Amino acid sequence: MTDYAVGKDVLSYCNACKLTLSHTVVAMRDTKTIAKVQCNTCQALHAFRSKSQARTTAKKTRSKAHIVPVDQLWKDAMSTTNKKSVAYSIRTKFNVGDIIDHSKFGPGIVQAFSDNDKIEVLFNSDIRVLVHNK
Ligand SMILES: [Zn+2]
Q1: How much distance in Å is there from the Cα of 20 to the middle of ligand 1?
Q2: Which of 1, 27, 36, 92 has its CA 20 to 30 A from that of 14?
Q3: Phi, psi of 72 (to 5 degrees)
Q4: Residue 8 Cα, ligand 1 centroid: separation in angstroms?
Q5: What is the pLDDT of residues 85-110, one digit of tens each?
Q6: Each residue of 15-38: pLDDT tens digit?
Q7: How far is the CA of 1 from the centre of ligand 1 (A)?
Q8: pLDDT tens for residues 35-85?
Q9: CA of 36 to the centre of ligand 1 (A)
Q10: CA dist., res. 57 & res. 59, Å (int)
Q11: Nearest-angstrom CA–CA distance, 104 and 120
């Protein structure tokens, strides 16, 4: 294994770039331990972080920022169904997974039942509760 030394390049996680990138060693704690590195991409100086530490941090960040926008949910749902759309009417009885063609909101997918006569429908712009089965 090669010894690290000041001025040598090393892979470290960069907090500013949010990536594991090539860094230059600027300070050593001892002959085997890097204390400080400088990012070759953004020039930021920070403590050395091994790849394993970086992975844990990245996972935590990702789960916290896990918010899928409605239009993305809608696109995914529409791309995984091959059902024919049915024109929306409050007299029609809909089931979960049905595709509704709404005159105002456009095509939507029934997500769940809400009360006895209401359905939750995922539209491109929003999730709406509609009355059905009247
Ligand atoms: Zn950087």
Answers
A1: 9
A2: 1
A3: -70, -40
A4: 16
A5: 999 999 999 999 999 999 999 999 99
A6: 889 999 999 999 998 888 899 999
A7: 26
A8: 999 999 999 999 998 755 555 555 555 555 567 889 999 999 999 998 999
A9: 13
A10: 5
A11: 16
Token pair recorded at residue 30: 């001892």
State in Å: Cα 19 to ligand 1 middle: 8
- Ligand 1 centre to CA of 21 (Å) is 7
By the 8 A CB rule, do 24 and 14 touch? no
Q: Which helix (H) or strand (E) holds 13?
A: strand 9-14
Please, which residues have CB less than 5 A from ligand 1, an ion? 14, 16-17, 39, 41-42, 44
Q: What is the DSSP letter of 30?
A: S
Q: Is 2 exposed, middle or buried (0-12, 13-18, 19+ CB in 10 A)?
A: exposed
Neighbours of 121 (CB within 10 A): 25
Q: How far is the CA of 51 from the centre of ligand 1 (A)?
A: 14
